[in-house]
Amino acid sequence: MSFLITTIAMFSFWILLSGEFTFILITSGVVSSLIVAYLSHDIFIGKADIKSETGRVFRFFRYLPWLLWQIILCNVEIAYLVLNPKPLVDPQLVRFKPDLKTDLGIVTLAHSITLTPGTVTVEATREEFVIHAIWQKSAEGIIDGEMQRKVKKIEGDVMEIEGEKSV
Amino acid sequence: MDIRTIIAGVFLGIGCFFIIVTAIGIVRFPDFYSRLHPAGKTDTVGQAFVLIGLMIYEGFSLISVKLLIIIVFIFIASPTATHAVAQAAFLKGIIPWKKKEKS
């Protein structure tokens, strides 16, 4: 099953990139996607529960517009800090413990923090997040924890998958 | 002039603005960690705006789909690289710069 899904995904990506339908291209596409799928289907899909993963992907796409809006706000803020003649930069390290269960959640949160208002993830593990905030305002935003609640919503209510290692 | 060309031009302009801000920010900010902020994020959005402008100029075709894929990859790769550099510095023990208290 995972082999089939990987093959289809690889082949549609091939068509997307090539955009031509001559015999030789289609044939080589089929052959190479079969080879790639054989080598990597257990990494790409693995033993994941397809039903809950699909739900997660959909929730992730619902989360995206908010994230993009935050990214734009962030960049206006950074531009303001850079172009302001006064040195407003007041960096500080913020530590907090994440309340997330899956690797997907940790990675999404770390990425989102790096991409949004004035914060860069320095250290991301299950036990502790270390965030570098560029000024007081963005540090307050992290402590507020709105982003973490949203990421937690993506995760849904799943039990910790067995064998998943810490990031 | 086509209206689409004008919109594409506006997007390219915004993108260039962000990239210039990135360059100024890297020079102006005080230490390693705070320099990562413009380098890692403003840069990403600048590139994204430039590529979106090119997509609008191109119209809906296979090329614009490829540009979209490039944007997605940049959005995944850039924070990862920023985080890797920041973590390396943190593990090496570089102490973040702090603003001096006003006496």
Main β-sheet of chain B: number of strands, strand sense, barrel status? none
Helical stretch tally of chain B: 3
Greatest interface? A-B, 31 and 37 residues
Output the radius of gyration of chain B: 18 Å
The quaternary organization reads as heterodimer
- What is the number of E strands of chain A? 3
Structural class of chain B: mainly alpha
Runs of chain A in which pLDDT lies below 50 for 5 or more consecutive residues are 160-167
Kindly report how far apart the N and C termini of chain A lie: 27 Å
Proportion in helices of chain B: over 70%
Order of helices and strands of chain B: HHH
Shape of chain B: elongated
Helix content of chain A: 55-70%
* Distance, first to last CA of chain B: 59 Å
The gyration radius over C-alpha positions of chain A equals 21 Å
Topology:
The complex is a heterodimer of chains A (167) and B (103).
Chain A: H1 2-18, H2 23-44, H3 50-83, E1 92-96, H4 103-115, E2 119-124, E3 129-133, H5 136-144, H6 146-155
Antiparallel strand pairs in A: 1-3, 2-3
Chain B: H1 3-28, H2 32-58, H3 62-92
Helix pairs in contact in B: 1-2, 2-3
Question: What would you say this structure looks like, in words?
Answer:
The complex is a heterodimer of chains A (167) and B (103). With 167 residues, chain A is mainly alpha-helical. Chain A has helices at 2-18, 23-44, 50-83, 103-115, 136-144, 146-155; strands spanning 92-96, 119-124, 129-133. Chain A has two domains: 2-44, no CATH class; 50-155, no CATH class. Chain A is built from six helices and three strands. With 103 residues, chain B is an all-alpha fold. Chain B has three helices and no strands.
